[in-house]
Design a protein that fits this description.
single chain; 253 residues; alpha/beta; Rossmann fold; 2 domains; seven-stranded parallel beta sheet; 7 strands; 16% strand; binds NADP nicotinamide-adenine-dinucleotide phosphate
Length: 253
């Protein structure tokens, strides 16, 4: 009997943070992983780390909000690794400000990466899933979807991703594809470090203060999110679709 072909996953924004942890975890789970990020060199460095751990990965540079870049990247991944049937829409940015000070460009940039990016990536990858009659889509939302001061743009995008996910679950379910959302609470990463810096609070102090407000009394780690992604991607999770899982150390962090 020939070996079944390995499952190919694309993780966006995977050069660092939650995306890199997710790429490592999916590789540990036996998937072949495309590490996609803005900076191809950084993406390749993460892919190399996976390879040194015995996994199979390629690093691909692309801006998820650029249609041509997305089309080219997905075609390249299909050529180099095989048709992708797992997609983790993780790439993200913040451009925080109170509403009255928020610039048009900050609104558009956040919508561009989170919403347009997830849309373009999913549209480009879905036909591989439909052809395979199997697929897994995991979108990164946030507890900010419930509302967060200074994040009118980000919370809107993260709430939008929840609606996007539920619609994907409805449209693609008959092709064996599930779509789910993970809404992390406070996770220690470069993104949250940048927030601490912006408001002028030392990182250790910031983590301690945030942890006090979290029921399990600690900050989340990137592997906490990778664990949840691994669950949704698992072949045995096929009856779980259209869901939003808050991974926040409590009901909403
Ligand atoms: P991070 O450390 O800032 O990493 C985000 C990655 O996305 C970076 O490598 C970044 O590349 C990449 N990226 C940004 N724009 C991109 C684009 N247009 N195309 C391709 N890649 C792009 O963030 P993180 O904390 O790991 O967060 C990952 C996801 O989880 C995000 O969607 C975030 O909103 C969500 N999330 C995070 C937290 C948290 O507490 N950390 C909580 C809730 C939700 P560059 O480095 O080149 O900019």
């Amino acid at each position: 009997m020939p070996e079944p072909s390995p499952t190919v996953a694309v993780v966006t924004g995977a050069a660092r943070g939650i995306g890199a942890a997710t790429a490592r975890r999916l590789a540990d789970d036996g998937l072949h992983v495309a590490v996609l990020d803005l900076d191809e060199r950084a993406a390749k460095a993460t892919a190399d780390t996976i390879a040194t751990r015995g996994g199979v990965a390629v690093g691909v540079g692309a801006d998820v909000s650029d249609t041509d870049a997305v089309t080219g990247a997905v075609a390249r991944i299909a050529r180099e690794l095989g048709p992708p049937t797992v997609l983790v829409n993780n790439a993200g940015i913040t451009r925080d400000n109170l509403l009255f000070k928020m610039a048009d460009a900050d609104w558009d940039a956040v919508m561009g990466v989170h919403l347009r990016g997830a849309f373009l990536m999913t549209r480009a990858v879905q036909h591989h899933m439909v052809d395979a009659e199997w697929g897994r889509i995991v979108n990164l939302s946030s507890t900010s979807a419930l509302g967060n001061r200074g994040q009118a743009n980000y919370s809107t995008a993260k709430a939008g991703l929840q609606g996007f996910t539920k619609t994907l679950a409805i449209e693609l379910g008959k092709f064996g594809v599930t779509a789910n959302c993970i809404a992390p609470g406070f996770i220690a990463s470069d993104m949250t470090r940048a927030t601490a810096e912006r408001i002028g609070v030392p990182w250790e102090q910031y983590v301690q203060d945030r942890a006090k407000a979290i029921p399990v009394q600690r900050a989340g780690q990137v592997d906490d999110i990778a664990q949840a992604v691994s669950f949704f991607v698992d072949r045995r999770s096929g009856f779980v679709s259209g869901q939003v899982l808050y991974v926040a150390g409590g009901p909403r962090g």
